[in-house]
């Protein structure tokens, strides 16, 4: 399915039937980005968090709240998650246990990363 961003929620539709699937609600401010892998949805938000969701259960598995500003994107790459932020950092996380691994600093806000 595909995702549409609206306010603090992520809405999804079945691409074959165009029927609406469950809505993912849990951020306190607007959504800035989405990514997905396997049965996992990743969302980033102006509220300073990124969330990892179980798509089947529409529930939050983990919340990343270690950025000092809006989280502008979160993406999956191999065994890693990469979150970027207006706080001028990109952070790398272990996808298996969500542990922080490393940080890349920049002179200005980072609005996205893709490997």
Key features of this structure:
115 residues; mainly beta; 4-stranded antiparallel beta sheet; globular
Task: Give a verbal description of the structure.
The chain is built from no helices and 11 strands. By secondary structure, it is mostly beta strands. The chain has a 4-stranded antiparallel beta sheet with strand order 4-5-6-7, with no helix packed on it. A 4-stranded antiparallel beta sheet has the order 8-9-10-11, with no helix packed on it. The protein is globular. The two termini are 22 Å apart. The model has no long low-confidence stretch (mean pLDDT 92).
Strand neighbour order, sheet with most strands: 4-5-6-7
Number of helices: 0
Please indicate the percent range of residues in DSSP E strands (runs of 2 or more). Answer: over 45%
Describe the biggest sheet?
Answer: 4 strands, antiparallel
Radius of gyration: 14 Å
Distance between the termini: 22 Å
Q: Helix- and strand-based class?
A: mainly beta
Could you list the spans in which at least 5 consecutive residues all have pLDDT below 50? none
Shape: globular
Order of helices and strands: EEEEEEEEEEE
Number of strands: 11
């Amino acid at each position: 399915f595909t995702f549409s961003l609206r306010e603090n929620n992520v809405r999804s539709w079945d691409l074959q039937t165009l029927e609406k699937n469950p809505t993912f609600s849990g951020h306190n401010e607007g959504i800035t980005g989405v990514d997905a892998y396997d049965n996992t949805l990743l969302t980033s938000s102006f509220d300073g968090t990124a969330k990892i969701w179980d798509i089947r259960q529409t529930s939050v598995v983990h919340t990343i709240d270690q950025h000092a500003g809006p989280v502008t994107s979160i993406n999956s790459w191999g065994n890693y998650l990469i979150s970027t932020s207006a706080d001028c950092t990109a952070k790398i996380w272990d996808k298996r246990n969500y542990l922080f691994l490393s940080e890349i600093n920049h002179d200005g806000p980072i609005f996205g990363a893709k490997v």
